[in-house]
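Pipeline run #58 for the internal structure catalog. This entry was flagged by the ingest filter as a single-chain record with no existing model, so it goes straight to prediction. Upstream metadata was stripped on purpose; only the residue string is passed forward. Reviewer on rotation: M.T. Logging verbosity set to normal.
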Amino acid sequence: MTQAGASTDRAVERGAEAAARPRRPAEVTVVVVLTYVVGVLTLLFGILLILLRYDADLQAEGLAFGVTLAGAITILFGFFTLALASLISRADRAARVILTVILGLNILWDVLIIVGSDTVDLVAIIDAVLVAAVIAVLWVGRAARFFRRPA
């Protein structure tokens, strides 16, 4: 078989796979986009926490290590959330469950930060609201039906 013939065969196979794949509902696309937004915001929040370790008051109280550790954990949540967004776009059921657990932990983490803060932490509040929206959209309506389809 010539190289052009093999290339044509692969193109036909990819076209057949794409035709067999169910079309992703808009809700799932919204979840994927929101998941990327939540992941990026979580990363930024973790970076801000790590930078907060240089605050003179925190250093004087000996809290720099704890704040740095909290920032590192937050960054890990962010990276894992970004990785799961790609799997969600392909109707991976396990990724939906894992993402729900990770986002639930993210909400818990945001609540702990909000409660432990002396001031209003607007970034954590926005992150918690976005995360809750992603979870809600992921488990209802056409998005839920998209994940129930046979693999």
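catalog note: The mean pLDDT is 83.
catalog note: The first helix runs from residue 3 to 20.
status: ready for reviewer M.T.
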